[in-house]
């Protein structure tokens, strides 16, 4: 069971990036899946998640309207399209699997670093 996040990099303010999270060993469509970020010196913050049951997607207020979570079933991959990036979006971005049994994240991918700077 593994998650692999990719797609981070350095981008100027106002730019765009697309992160990908490839799942192996399980079907992500059976789980609530999260994008979580950790800015330098700060704690983890959930960015977006998808409810596997309803298909509903949620965003934290600070990224609403700028970020879009999507999925590609054939590749068992989640994406996070990030537009109009701001310096405050700079963070290590993780994808994670939510466990109903534990009420927390039980599988984490290695983070991918997003740096927004001119």
Q: Which outline best applies?
A: globular
Largest sheet entry: 7 strands, mixed
Order of helices and strands: EEEEEEEEEEE
Work out the radius of gyration: 13 Å
Global structural class = mainly beta
Quote the distance from N terminus to C terminus. 38 Å
Number of β-strand runs: 11
Number of helical runs? 0
Spans of at least 5 consecutive residues whose pLDDT stays below 50 are none
Query: Which band does the percent of strand residues land in?
Result: over 45%
Mean pLDDT: 95
The helicity comes to under 10%
Keywords:
single chain, 118 residues, mainly beta, seven-stranded mixed beta sheet, 11 strands, 0% helix, globular
Description of the molecule:
The strands form two sheets. Strands 2, 4, 5, 6, 9, 10 and 11 form a seven-stranded mixed sheet that branches. With 118 residues, the chain is mainly β. Helix content is 0%, strand content 53%. It is built from no helices and eleven strands.
Give the SSE layout.
Layout lengths: L1 E5 L2 E3 L5 E8 L8 E6 L5 E7 L6 E3 L7 E6 L4 E6 L8 E9 L4 E5 L3 E5 L2
Parallel strand pairs: 2-11
Antiparallel strand pairs: 1-3, 3-8, 4-5, 4-9, 5-6, 7-8, 9-10, 9-11
Summary?
The protein is mostly beta strands and 118 residues long.
